[in-house]
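Record format v2
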Amino acid sequence: MKVDEIKIGGIGASRKRVEDDRFIRGKGNYTDDIVLPGMLHMEILRSPLAHARIKSIDTSKAWDIPGVHLVMTGEMMASRNLAWMPTLSYDTQAVLATDKVRFQGQEVACVIADDPYIAKDACEAIEVDYELLPVIVNPDQAVAEGAPVIRDDKENQPDNVIYNWEVGDKTGTDRAFEQADVISKLELHYPRSHPSPIECCGSVADFNRATSKLTVYMTTQAPHIIRAAVAMVAELPEHMIRIVSPDIGGGFGNKVPVYPGYVCSILASILLERPVKWIEDKSGNLISTGFARDIYLKGEMALRRDGKILAVRMHTDADHGAFFSDAQPSKFKLGLIHSAFAAYDIPVAHLTARGTYSNKAPGGVAYRCSFRVTEAMFFQERMVQAAATDLGMDQAEFRRMNFVRDDDFPHRTPFGFLTDSGQYAKCLEVGLKAINYQDFRKKQAEARERGRLLGLGISTMTEPLGAGNSREYDILGIKMFDSAELKVHMTGKAIVRTGARTQGQGHETTWAQIVAHELGIPAEDVVVEEGDTDTAPFGMGTYASRSTPVAGAAVAMVCRKIRAKARRLAAHLLEVSEEDIDWELGRFYVRSAPDRGVTIQECALAAYSNMPDGMEPGLENTAYYDPPNLTWPFAVYIVTVEVDPATGVWDVLSTVAVDDCGVRINPMIVEGQIMGGLTEAYAMASMQFITFDADGNCVGSNYMDYLLPTAWETPGYELHSEVVTPCPHHPLGAKGIGECAAVGGPAAFVNAVIDAISQTGVRNIDMPLLPDRVWEALETGRDVSGAPPVKSS
Amino acid sequence: MTMVYEDDEAASDVPVRKIRFTINGQKKIAEVEPRLLLSHLIRRGAGLTGTHMGCDTTNCGACTVLVDGAAVKSCTMLAVQADGHSIETVEGLASASELHPLQEGFKQEHGLQCGFCTPGMMMAAKALLARNPDPTEEDIRWALSGNLCRCTGYQNIVKSVLWAAAKMRGER
Amino acid sequence: MYPSRFRYEAPHSLTEAIGLLHDGGENAKVLAGGQSLVPLMKLRFASPELVVDINNVPGLAYHTVDPDGTLRIGALCRHVDLERSDVLNPTMAAAAPLIADPIVRNRGTLAGSLCHADPQGDWASVVLALGGSVVARGPNGQRTIALKDFVHGPFENALAPDEIAVEVVIPAATGTRQGGYLKLERRVGDFATVGVAVAVETANGTVTKAGIGLTGVGGSTIAATEAARALTGQPLTPDTISRAADLAAEAARPRTDHRGSADYKRHMVRVFTERILSNSNGTGHEEKAA
């Protein structure tokens, strides 16, 4: 009589998605779909210059345009103490520029009008007089003698350095390097990239004077963080602020920060006492919102002759743009960059990091990156490839030799992380078999004789997902737990709300599957809600692949609280004591008389109609989950390519992905996440980047120049799920997965191309590996850099 | 019904044009400024928000609708140009009682995640299937190369369209 | 994303359209496919005061081959009509599928593309290589402008403010046609980093006519006339092809920018020219950047 877990949509069921029903009908409710009575529209005027003093702003012509209700400038914001706002990294960021503009695209003024066409007309009518200042577009320029100080608005900021940070063991590392037989070096630039979900950012701010309540519908992956930020910035009481995150058309980290547009729309609504909608355009999104990467990495690996890695040294220079606004755990200046090499058994390592300002949009942490883990793992796998090459060792063999072994867990990484589970060697074997590794190497050699360039690239990594434990992790002091509230109604149907916020990951489908797994209530009987701070329990939102590890765990834990109460109700209904009762999916039964039992639904009804004496009625509860540790999925990505030596164009021949993310709640959704991540990896490796010319003009600020691959270029993927190493501390044994392929994927593509042209001796071509860069490598035999400023003639 | 407007000199100054068009089989009249984009007529004028806008350079295809049966990026057509023509949006795919096979296919094959590009994808796919009821994977990737997706990596979108094509051929 | 205000007319005849342009002054634009004009207007790089929409003018959506082989393409012939056509010469057949993306091809027109005169526009190189012309009609009648004289510079064409391009003419072949179009685009819809159009006619194994047009490697579309001249009167051999490819590369005036170095672009002109001439039917599908 036990309920079939797969049939009821429990864990392991590739349940079709609940959210699809409205999306396929075009009935999604995205921020731009929201229309409120009396709503006005806001457009932003952006700076055309990267670094310039504002001499004057004349908004008179804008005010004269019929249909314009309000024109806001930095001066006006300043009179309300709103020209600057705090960032998530304890810096400040301009809402509207006052003294000067510090990056091309920076917000200078905004207009609120009857419709966005008029608002745009009015923006065009604003006259700004600028005085050019010298421009900084990379860290070298930032620290050069005589460099202009970008943040001259800050006290105690004499230069453009934001932080210096270090982690690891310098003395031990230096000593290990002295023992090395071979030292392998690598230097590269991970270019600026942008998450660029198709839906841009936006908000509909609605201040109701009659109730003194502010409601903001907005594209946010973390509504509760926003509520706290708005309370701070707008100085409104927290209980009178409601943040609603409606359907989101993709996040990827782009929709975590607080953007000036949100703040302006909120202030405008308060001043005008009408709803104000701000929806940015794609150019505004690309040029000004949270970008990713733009980091220079230098590393050395100390190697023993037989291939054992003795130590690693890394130095990073991160270009944060004009304001330090990374959303990352406050303890770590450069996020989790020091999670690098976690999969390898390396005794000692040292990392130094420096962050600098530049005349570019602020950010750095975003884009499916797990707080800088993308940079860490990319550099790791590029260094591993270089090291194996320097040693003359096979790429797979070198990795296998240095992997943390299955029985070495728990394992302390050289930078202090604790990994707890994995079967790295097995994953690698699965991947090598799937790609026909030995066969390919043979084909590769034969092809080379005939002048054809085939290449194979491996990328293997374990990454920390699910930030994170309250001892180590917080954002602006708020700990990174998450939550779930479950209410079981009298007919046994239920509603679950969490502090996470899905942007396509399928929470409405998968959280219900957890309930089905824990309680035996069919998933279709469970509705899931997220995103409204008035009703959702407090959570830190969805990014850094933290939802399954943290919010998902909270869902499991709240189910167990419910089940514990249901057990007491069952005992009452069955007239036995609790110790005589056992549970099977969906049902409590008397151990000694298994035919006597009650379903979970019967228990639910009893919670409203037949409680034992002294029991509080109802069947509802909330759980807050403070994860004991991060989760550590492991992945192997192997890519084969062919490079056309005449043109530098390369094509992907095959891509194999082996992902061990522990228990998969919904295999179909997990695979969707992996394929999406691999595509972003491919995009970054092949065509997608933002750069700057010497004047700070942004190249890649629209879709003509910021290239996303289409269905035509994007390769197909072969996914493997045979290896499952449950997370030992997660209640369901699940690990995060959303970002793995974006983190580990790029190196596989790059390593493949570098492998294809290995006869040139070239060790590095900066991403994206555009045809002209590959050709340059082939022609010159030298490494190719892509760092800004872009070369021009 | 009476419509009440702001008494604003500007409102009477702006030249508008009366246009007649059909949208999802329904006949409509609208008064529009020439500069109004077709996508805005659809989303704000007709209140059909299933057609989305994702970029400003005619690249992403989230705004794809069918105009007289041909796929068109509605952000790159003026509303006035719809005068006398027939528009089909995602809201017109399903009949009163049934989903369109494309809608079913996208759900069956997990062809969407955030859903933002999906209406545009389905409309472009519908135009493809009207001309080519038995497309190969390559045909589908080619036909959808004007529609960008950030979430799925396209592989499941291709499977969704293949699923729909098979159903429309009576093979499901 | 929001164009400035403009007046709009949708005439039902060419005469009416020309009259409107004539009265409209310097700041009027013709709207056909709109796939170049509307994006410019949305970014406010173009703010015409009057837009004359010719989509309601009948009889312009054709492309036909005269009995003598002349190909005539009407002003409202869409890219997709050419992509699906089976009467095209190899150069045009190779280029048609590479214009923008499949949805844009449903609306955009070849004539409009030529008028737009974008140095990174594909059709101009193709029509240049084929020795084609644009037929312009104005209040004073009609004139035919060879494409080499039609494109004056980036986004500048030879039309008077009150003239409309009504037809594009590709002369009939006298020999056997060969050729193709190769385009380096990093993804579908990308502007060409480099594009090469080659149109060659042969008779008895000798080239009787040749044309090579280059996209994206200069201030406007470039005619590689030296390269074409070097081929004329010669057989197509690896040597003559290689020489022509060298000359085509020399004719390119590329700039170094985020799409690549000038050296690379010049090199690609060489590679593409050689590949098209060697294959005799250079198609575009394979020549996409990964």
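The domain at 292-467+629-780 of chain A is CATH 3.30.365.10 (Aldehyde Oxidoreductase; domain 4).
Chain A touches chain B through 59 residues (CB under 8 Å).
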